[in-house]
Specification:
Pfam families: SBP_bac_8. This protein is of the alpha+beta class and 542 residues long. It has helices at 6-13, 16-22, 108-117, 131-141, 157-164, 169-172, 188-191, 218-221, 233-243, 256-266, 287-301, 314-322, 336-343, 384-397, 404-411, 429-434, 455-468, 483-504, 513-538, and strands spanning 68-69, 89-96, 120-127, 147-150, 195-196, 199-200, 203-206, 212-217, 273-276, 279-282, 328-332, 351-354, 373-379, 418-421, 424-427, 449-450. It has a five-stranded mixed beta sheet with strand order 3-2-4-13-7.
Length: 542
């Protein structure tokens, strides 16, 4: 693997975690890798089979959707009858979005996981923002753990997988996955993330492909007469302007970039690439995108954004939302329950969400699309018996909602980390810390909608999902790989973001966007396009 030198890995992976966490800073022009095109790996994908038998209270009408539950099934039993290990140890490297959990010696939840596995599961992990450097250093050092998370943009990824990891096709393709029934329950689309060179290179961290939500403080809108559920761009602008009162230190929103994403979606261009007859066009090249940029600049000139909105962290924006400084915030769909938790101690707090709207009566909105797999876990090269043992551990970690394994991993041990209220496990403060071990970023089951003791939250999450999934933006790059994008995409996106922010801050005219797009094309955008078009063509007909 001479081409994959340590310098190349460190250079290429330095931005991987940032790219993987939320696409690029440009929002709606960030490339995602999900979809339902059916082009990638169709002949080798694992055969889907529903895992578990918990009957949902809310069943999605969309194959990409999550089932919803109002309570945890009583008397849960194990989904895996025999411990996957007979002593011994499995090691893993992954990432996390949460604070560091207490170590195994101080964590009875982790100790109980080891006990039920029949051996030791040792996990080394880093914050998602720092994972690229940890990954690069580990791979370049050559001493790999059994399991490694492939997260974010990685240069020369196909070559790296072939050099260091196990081709899992013979173990998981088609009906072979039936040996691991919980893995068989992961969505077909999520497996496409693991396909390179018509081979399976890992187990996906499956997700519903809804990346974000525009949340609104419904309690702060109530009684104002403002359109809390805007139906077009006029009502959306009226809402933002009406919520802003600088004299009271209140601005409608803290994130101009995400507002631009929402307006672009109203114009039907939330996807990063558009494919027509095998030809690819980036959304940033469209006149409609420049129109969305002009509308967002108009809102910026009207003062609806927090003065520090362009430079604030997500944590700052979330704090502004919770304390009412900015009644609108954009955040990850998966974090719905966190917003409810943060607002629990705020008098009168009521969380609402803004639906996607058409720009005008003639427009059909789309919803920005996320990935059906946040990452995937690769298995380091090993003898077949060892590979099967490792896969059995992953299958245990993928035990579905309703099982005793799921209850342990997510809520812990009754009496120590949670107590039952009815059949719902209500986690205590100690449990909130102990359960932060990132088992789910090594491997996890199909996600579900479940908020213990909060039927209203589960219903709201489900309703949003059912409205969003039918209008998800298309993504023709799903399952395709561009080396130029992996190597230069983040820097190219940063350059565009800098230009965009200059426009929104009033430092440059909207007309300067055309020059930025030309620079993007000449700097690598056209090459990325060509690579995707070639990969799309080679993938064959749908």
């Amino acid at each position: 693997m001479d081409a994959l030198s340590r310098r190349t890995l460190l250079k290429g992976l330095s931005a991987a975690a940032v790219a993987g966490a939320a696409g690029s800073a440009l929002g709606c022009s960030a490339k995602t890798t999900t979809g339902t095109s059916g082009r990638i790996g169709a002949d080798i994908l694992p055969t889907f089979a529903q895992a578990g038998n918990a009957e949902p209270a809310l069943k999605s009408a969309n194959p990409l959707g999550m089932s919803g539950y109002f309570e945890y099934p009583p008397n849960p039993v194990a989904a895996v009858s025999t411990p996957p290990l007979s002593g011994g140890q499995i090691s893993a490297l992954t990432y996390t979005f949460d604070p560091v959990a207490p170590g195994k010696s101080d964590n009875p939840l982790w100790q109980e996981v080891d006990k039920r596995l029949g051996g030791k599961l040792d996990i080394t992990y880093a914050p998602a923002a720092d994972y690229a450097q940890r990954f690069a250093t580990t791979v370049a050092g050559g001493d790999l753990p059994d399991l490694v998370s492939i997260y974010g943009s990685v240069q020369q990824l196909p070559a790296l997988l072939k050099a260091k990891f196990t081709d899992l096709t013979e173990y998981l393709s088609g009906d072979a996955v039936k040996d691991y029934p919980n893995l068989a329950g992961l969505s077909t689309d999520s497996w496409r993330k693991t396909v390179y060179g018509n081979a399976l290179w890992g187990v996906p961290i499956a997700r519903v492909p809804i990346p974000s939500v525009a949340w609104i403080r419904a309690d702060l809108v109530a009684g104002t007469g403002l359109p809390a559920q805007p139906k077009d761009i006029g009502e959306f602008k009226a809402l933002l302007k009406g919520l802003t009162n600088e004299r009271k230190s209140r601005w409608a929103c803290g994130d101009p970039g995400s507002t631009l994403t929402m307006i672009a979606a109203a114009l039907g261009i939330a996807g990063s690439w558009i494919e027509d007859g095998g030809k690819f066009t980036s959304n940033i090249e469209l006149e409609a995108y420049e129109k969305a940029l002009a509308d967002t600049r108009e809102l910026a000139d009207a003062g609806v954004f927090h003065p520090d909105g362009l430079v604030a962290s997500n944590n700052q924006r979330n704090d502004w939302f919770t304390n009412g400084t900015t009644p609108i915030v954009f955040g990850g769909y998966a974090g719905w329950s966190k917003y409810e938790m943060w607002g629990a101690e705020v008098p009168g707090f009521k969380l609402g969400s803004l639906p996607m709207f058409g720009y005008d009566a003639a427009s059909k909105p789309v919803h920005p699309r996320g990935s059906a797999a946040q990452a995937f876990t690769a298995v380091t090269r090993a003898e077949p018996d060892r590979v099967r043992e490792v896969l059995r551990v992953l299958d245990w970690l993928a035990a579905p909602f309703g099982s005793s394994e799921y209850l342990l991993r997510n809520f812990g041990i009754e009496g120590q980390t949670f107590k039952f209220e009815g059949s719902d496990p209500i986690v205590n403060s100690r449990g909130q810390n102990l359960r932060l071990v990132p088992f789910g970023y090594v491997c996890g089951p199909t996600q579900v909608i479940y908020d213990p003791g909060r039927r209203d939250v589960a219903q709201a999450r489900f309703d949003y999902q059912e409205a969003a999934l039918p209008i998800l933006a298309a993504d023709p790059t799903q399952g395709l790989y561009s080396e130029t994008d992996a190597a230069k995409g983040l820097q190219l996106s940063k350059d565009l973001t800098d230009t965009r922010n200059g426009i929104l801050a009033g430092r440059a005219p909207v007309s300067s966007w055309k020059a930025a797009v030309t620079k993007w094309r000449n700097g690598g955008g056209d090459k990325i396009r060509a690579e995707y078009q070639q990969a799309f063509s080679e993938a064959g007909p749908k």
